[in-house]
Write a sequence for this structure.
């Protein structure tokens, strides 16, 4: 049994007071915090409900719960309902119970109701935002000049999300509490950055970095004529930029910009509530507002103990929420600043690095006119955890270099300060046999594969296992990359050599063949014939000149022409997609995920074929990613991104794609409007008409401000640190022809190799099956309607007939409805077929058989999709009838079937919003039709809540 070391024990035992643990990788932070939890709830008078334990992913929350159970007297049943959860699910719970009127605190009349959904898919939200934005543009001509600089509205959604994560919200009259201050920025904070960047170097002999950088001022830019000349900005005969430039670039009238963002943000909140949805950020926003405003409620909810794991991943609003939820000073945060790699999800590394200052200023701010946080921000106890239970000493020492190397030739790190912030770790491993190596090759993929072959079974790369050394296998190795694309390329190369590799990086859904064909057919239907047909014909195997001929003469293959006609007759984009996938035999997970995505965006918006084309095109452009795992054999190499590997460990790590422009990736924020600390809200572009010449100009002040704020490469270094510290025994780096600056600076010799992997014969191992499955964490949970039905009522229903009989009747009904030739034997004992025939003969509308139905539904803050197959849909001009065949000999299961049909009802209601929908059971034995009264979505949700033990 593992026992805690002294430092860990100290944290476990000291349960009261303010604690900050900022400790390195693999030092047992999660291990310790879970035992501390067990210790707290073991005290007299403390119940699990008194202790809030927060983290950032549902998986992490689940794992903590599992770890706690084994150390405490409470069982899983109690802990399942205990507040061991993510910020999002906590906010969801608060709003569900108390949040109905939360929007009124911002002056918004719309309510948060039972049916308010949580939109988790960014693409879906972007589509909704686009719809909202078009409407906003129409109703706000006063902002035309801003609209002119926006080419992609999603960038504005990005600004809104960023402000939300910072706790800046609009209200009816302006900005909630002190929000406007953040938008204006903090001149003093900016000035101190400016001054330090503007210090002359080499005892005054060399110009400041800032002055040197501003040589670029005006290069490739088009400023308004009132912009000062470069010489005025840089100053002449001086080593520094004139200090008044700081004020001059900071001060600008931003009232128009602020009011544009205010109205856009405020009306978007209203739009979202009217359309009955929230995003993750808005969940936190409304929970925060509620806790700020409703003092009685805050006291009622607040916890005696609050602990946060992975604190380096918290955003500003999350830190403040945790403070509002803490009724005592028993507040403990645990994390590692060196592993803060989620700024794109608004994590603020300053929360942990400047814990004391932030704690003080946030408490001050929250208490400005009412005491919301009742404790003093001192004293703060800090505990160092210095023993590492994962890597060898050599790797631990080497990993520190990751935080000290430059990211580009022009980047220079303040190594003295960073070194000061690193607490050296000591390794607990028994063996010290690390190999730290690097190689580069013309073909990096092949070189990596050859290296993997070199490592497997090689004693020189032996790994520790249960206290002894053994030669490595494939599964000991992980290949980690900064960006996803490389992993997929490597996966392709491995297929060629039949190496066992499991790529766990997600797929770009809209780059799949399924999506491309769907897009092609939609283009054909929408009259964009050449592009559409070219892709369809190419997929069908036509050669380029054949395609050119067909396009020119418009003599499309007959079968394809009639397929197009059949698509034309379909009403909904979902039906079109399904028909296309079924024609091409696409039945796997990718088709399912695509259908689900289309269905959910269609449910939320009035998606036309043209909209769907643009939706897919945007998805292709953005490289929208959906997490899917390739299930390979158990003994296979893992390939994943560094982000995905966080928290994991592997005996051997290959950090790949250490190439220029790939790590750090090229590009940056080029949004025309952006928010950045400490300069606040700024616009990079502005529209003006000068001498009747309309043009989009660059903003010279924002340009200088951006030069003053050095590009943040710190997070890229932290990513490198995270990657290295995943390794237990050996670390290797690989690059192609153009190694990055990191690799040049790391203290490891880079060997040039020309290795070629050898193909593994089929007889040696089977090719890893490329089955794709959607994991719970990133995508909605899937449920079938049967999961919400009680099983016991079915025990007797097929009595005498059996499920095979049921299947046979269903197959028969499908074939008959499709007009296929079937025989209808007359059988008095089982008149089911004859009844089906007379039912179908009596229907005179369009018949759709075996239709897939997906109902996304929000349960406890998670998206769950209930999917099933509707036996028959009868489409009439004014009405849609859902018919589900049942071969039961009695009607005692009807209440359970009601749930199933209710799911179908809601799916079709969103597909045919203008028509009446009915749902009925057709009892094939008697020919009776039993129409059901559908449950509301709220009722379905409660059924799900009761049956789903824990939604991941
Ligand atoms: N006192 C201990 N004795 C033995 N093993 C320990 C001890 N403390 C932690 N470990 C083990 O070390 C490993 C790392 O622990 P844990 O995941 O809690 O670390 P962490 O600090 O949260 O890591 P990271 O920051 O990389 O996520 C786990 O396998 C854990 O069981």
């Amino acid at each position: 049994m593992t026992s805690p070391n002294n430092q860990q024990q100290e944290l476990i035992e000291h349960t009261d007071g303010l604690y900050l643990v900022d400790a390195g990788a693999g030092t047992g932070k999660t291990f310790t915090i879970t035992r501390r939890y067990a210790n707290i709830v073991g005290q007299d008078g403390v119940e699990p409900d008194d202790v809030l334990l927060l983290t950032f992913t549902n998986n992490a929350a689940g794992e903590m719960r599992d770890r706690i159970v084994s150390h405490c007297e409470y069982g899983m049943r109690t802990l399942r309902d205990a507040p061991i959860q993510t910020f999002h699910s906590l906010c969801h719970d608060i709003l569900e119970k108390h949040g109905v009127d939360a929007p009124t605190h911002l002056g918004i009349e719309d309510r948060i109701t039972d049916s308010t959904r949580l939109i988790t898919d960014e693409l879906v939200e972007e589509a909704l935002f686009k719809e909202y934005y078009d409407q906003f543009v129409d109703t706000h001509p006063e902002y035309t000049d801003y609209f002119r600089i926006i080419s992609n509205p999603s960038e504005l959604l990005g600004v809104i999300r960023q402000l939300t994560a910072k706790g800046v919200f609009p209200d009816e009259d302006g900005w909630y509490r002190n929000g406007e201050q953040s938008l204006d920025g903090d001149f003093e904070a900016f000035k101190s950055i400016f001054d330090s960047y503007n210090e002359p170097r080499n005892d005054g002999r060399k110009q400041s970095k800032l002055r040197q950088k501003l040589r670029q001022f005006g290069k490739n830019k088009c400023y308004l004529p009132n912009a000062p000349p470069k010489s005025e900005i840089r100053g002449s005969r001086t080593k520094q930029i004139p200090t008044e430039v700081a004020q001059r670039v900071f001060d600008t009238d931003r009232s128009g910009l602020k009011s544009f963002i205010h109205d856009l943000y405020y009306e978007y909140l209203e739009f979202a509530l009217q359309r009955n949805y929230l995003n993750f950020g808005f969940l936190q926003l409304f929970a925060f507002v509620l806790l700020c405003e409703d003092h009685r409620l805050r006291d009622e909810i607040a916890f005696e103990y609050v602990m946060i794991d992975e604190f380096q991943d918290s955003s500003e609003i999350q830190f403040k929420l945790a403070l509002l939820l803490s009724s005592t000073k028993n507040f403990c945060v645990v994390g590692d600043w060196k592993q803060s790699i989620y700024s794109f999800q608004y994590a603020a590394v300053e929360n942990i690095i400047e814990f004391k200052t932030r704690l003080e200023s946030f408490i001050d701010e929250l208490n400005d006119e009412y005491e919301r946080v009742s404790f003093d921000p001192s004293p703060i106890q800090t505990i160092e955890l210095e023993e590492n239970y994962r890597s060898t000493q050599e790797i631990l020492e080497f990993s520190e270099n990751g935080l000290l190397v430059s990211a580009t030739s022009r980047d220079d790190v303040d190594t003295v300060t960073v070194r000061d912030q690193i607490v050296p770790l000591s390794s607990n491993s028994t063996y010290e046999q690390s190999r730290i190596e690097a190689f580069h090759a013309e073909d990096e993929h092949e070189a990596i594969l050859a290296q993997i072959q070199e490592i497997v079974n090689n004693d020189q790369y032996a790994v520790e296992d249960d206290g002894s050394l053994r030669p490595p296998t494939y599964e000991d190795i992980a290949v980690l990359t900064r960006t996803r694309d490389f992993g997929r390329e490597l996966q392709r190369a491995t297929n060629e050599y039949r190496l066992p590799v499991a790529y766990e990086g997600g797929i770009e859904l809209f780059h799949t063949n399924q999506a491309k064909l769907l897009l092609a057919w939609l283009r054909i239907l929408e009259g964009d014939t050449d592009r559409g047909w070219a892709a369809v014909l190419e997929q069908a195997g036509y050669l380029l000149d054949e395609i050119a001929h067909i396009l020119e003469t418009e003599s499309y293959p007959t079968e394809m022409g009639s397929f197009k006609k059949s698509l034309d007759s379909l009403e909904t984009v979902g039906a079109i997609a399904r028909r296309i996938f079924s024609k091409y035999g696409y039945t796997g997970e990718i088709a399912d995920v695509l259908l689900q995505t289309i269905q959910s965006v269609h449910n939320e918006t009035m998606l036309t074929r043209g909209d769907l084309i643009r939706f897919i095109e945007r998805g292709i452009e953005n490289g929208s990613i959906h997490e899917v795992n390739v299930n390979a054999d158990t003994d296979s190499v893992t390939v994943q991104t560094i982000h995905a590997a966080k928290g994991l460990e592997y005996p051997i790590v290959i950090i790949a794609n250490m190439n220029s422009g790939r790590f750090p990736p090229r590009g940056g924020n080029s949004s025309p409007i952006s928010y950045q600390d400490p300069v606040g809200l700024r616009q990079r572009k502005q529209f003006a008409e000068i001498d009747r010449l309309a043009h989009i100009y660059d903003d010279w002040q924002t340009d200088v401000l951006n030069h003053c704020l050095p590009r943040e490469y710190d997070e890229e270094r932290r990513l490198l640190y995270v990657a290295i510290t995943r390794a237990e025994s050996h670390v290797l780096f690989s690059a192609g022809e153009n190694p990055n600056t990191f690799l040049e600076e790391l203290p490891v010799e880079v060997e040039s190799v020309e290795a070629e992997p050898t193909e593994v014969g089929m007889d040696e191992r089977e090719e890893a099956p490329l089955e794709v499955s959607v994991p719970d964490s990133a995508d909605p949970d899937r449920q079938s309607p049967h999961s919400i039905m009680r099983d016991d009522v079915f025990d007797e229903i097929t009595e005498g007939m059996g499920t095979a009989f049921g299947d046979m009747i269903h197959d028969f009904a499908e074939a008959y409805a499709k007009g296929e030739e079937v025989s209808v034997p007359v059988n008095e004992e089982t008149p089911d077929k004859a009844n089906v025939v007379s039912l179908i003969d009596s229907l005179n509308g369009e018949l759709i058989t075996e239709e897939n139905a997906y109902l996304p539904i929000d349960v406890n803050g998670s998206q769950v999709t209930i999917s099933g197959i509707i036996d028959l849909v009868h489409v009439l001009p004014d009405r849609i009838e859902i018919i589900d065949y049942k071969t039961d000999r009695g009607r005692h299961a009807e209440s359970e079937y009601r749930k199933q049909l209710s799911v179908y009802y809601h799916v079709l209601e969103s597909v045919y919003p203008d028509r009446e929908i009915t749902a009925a059971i057709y009892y094939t034995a008697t020919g009776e039709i039993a129409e059901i009264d559908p449950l509301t979505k709220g009722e379905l949700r409660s059924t799900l809540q009761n049956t789903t033990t824990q939604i991941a």
Remarks:
- Residues 2, 4-5, 8, 25-31, 336, 339, 389-390, 647 surround adenosine-5'-triphosphate (CB under 6 Å).
- The chain has 38 helices and 35 strands.
